[in-house]
Amino acid sequence: MFFQRIKYTDLLTAFFIVLDLILINSIAYLLPINLEEIILFHCYITTAWIIIALQTNFYIIYRYSKITYVLRLIVRQFFFYFLIIYAFIGFFKQPNMSRLALAQYVAIVFVTVSVLKLVHYYLLMEFRERIKSNTRNVVVIGQNKKTSQLIQMFRDRTEYGYNFVRQFCPKTDDMPIEEYFRFIQEENIDEIYCSISELKNNEIVDFINFADNNLKVLKFLPDNKNIYSKKLKFEYYDYLPILSLRDIPLHNPINAFVKRLFDILFSLLMIFGLLIWITPLLAILIWMESRGPLFFMQKRTGLDNNEFYCYKFRSMAMNRDADKQQASKGDMRVTRVGKFIRKTSIDELPQFYNVLFGQMSVVGPRPHMVKHTDEYAGKVDKYMVRHFVKPGITGLAQVRGYRGEVQKESDIQNRIKFDVFYIENWSFLLDIKIIIQTIINMFKGDEKAY
């Protein structure tokens, strides 16, 4: 359960991040550097390494990355690391540090980490090619020179981990575009590659909407047509240029690692610092007013539209409509204790167990009941985009006032707008800002917290 939805590539990346940090700290003891501020030095080089890696995308290896890309990452990482290591002498006034030993340290770290980086790269390639794990089912839309090159690349470069399933030809196929969509759904296709020179503008829009609403990755072979998207990411598969419709920061392994690490640490802090003593107290208060279980578990939809049980402190009297009817203002099912814990959002605290188990994140789009997901997926545009990341205990839409009961259509539309913005513009600082605003709202009170 703890490693739910964690791919082997993410685990491998996390392993090499930790291994690199251990090495850059351990190798310092092999040489006579004459460290006077040992703890300061280790904090400095660890922080510097992580910051540089974030800026250079050192731990991002795409399935279509070439060895030259990996070598550029290594050179870029160590160029800045070398400068920052030597800056330590001047910043912290360490005249007794051996410059020669420091240079030897950087050289040994460079060789060691470079070897590990290349091992990481080839392990990923070999794993995909030999074990056929973590493959992506793909279809290609269009029939021309570029699509033929792309299909040939999928077939030849098996180490990339793509499983080519079918090619569609809009100009010659005697079938409506809806048949393409039906096939993509039935065959569990992961990625769609469109040659937009063969699609009409309205068909491009149809593909964009279909991909957004059905959790499919959509990419284009570019030409001079207009693509209706705010943000495009330019990539190369072998020597073929490819445009990605949406760049999701949390699909970056190091961003995902940082967010997951924060989730684990923050959830442990809340569980052992707050839940461990507030749970028995609430148990007494809840049971005094209403007999029944302490916790309320409800099926909700999360990452990739998978269902999970979301935990809450029970705030209502036992009733049959808990999984069907959303709480409304003045709801008679809510107990007196329930009104207080809902107003202060204390009822949401058990979801830190969901975070620890890997089903949720501290910050993300709020998970909806299965009934509501089924209802909104068919009538709210871009609704399914929110399932590209883990749901959160709090989110951007919630701190902007769109939480709780959906009273009118604009409520759910604005909630989705903020959810999609969060997914496309995630940063660690944005998460911190949302957490701080959530805490402020807890003390101020939210008019929609009922």
Q: State the low-pLDDT regions, or none.
A: 1-6
H/E topology pattern: HHHHEHEHEHEEEHEEHHEHEHHH
Quick one: overall form? Answer: flat
Number of domains: 3
Q: How much of the sequence is in beta strands? A: 5-15%
Supply Rg: 26 Å
GO molecular function: phosphotransferase activity, for other substituted phosphate groups
Organism: Robiginitalea myxolifaciens
Family: Belongs to the bacterial sugar transferase family.
InterPro entries: Bact_transf (IPR003362), EPS_sugar_tfrase (IPR017475), Undecaprenyl-P_gluc_Ptfrase (IPR017473)
Task: Characterise the protein shown here.
There is one protein chain. The protein is of the alpha/beta class and 450 residues long. It has 3 domains: 8-131, no CATH class; 136-247, Rossmann fold, CATH 3.40.50.2300; 253-444, no CATH class. Helices cover 50% and strands 12% of the residues. It is built from 14 helices and 10 strands. The strands form 3 sheets. The protein has a 6-stranded mixed sheet with strand order 2-1-3-4-6-5. α5 (145-156) links the parallel β1 and β2. α1 runs antiparallel to α4 (99-131) and α3 (67-91) runs antiparallel to α4. The protein is flat. The two termini are 32 Å apart. Residues 259-444 form the Bacterial sugar transferase domain. It is found in: Membrane. It is a multi-pass membrane protein. The chain crosses the membrane at residues 12-32, 38-61, 73-92, 104-124, 264-288. Keywords: Membrane, Transferase, Transmembrane, Transmembrane helix.
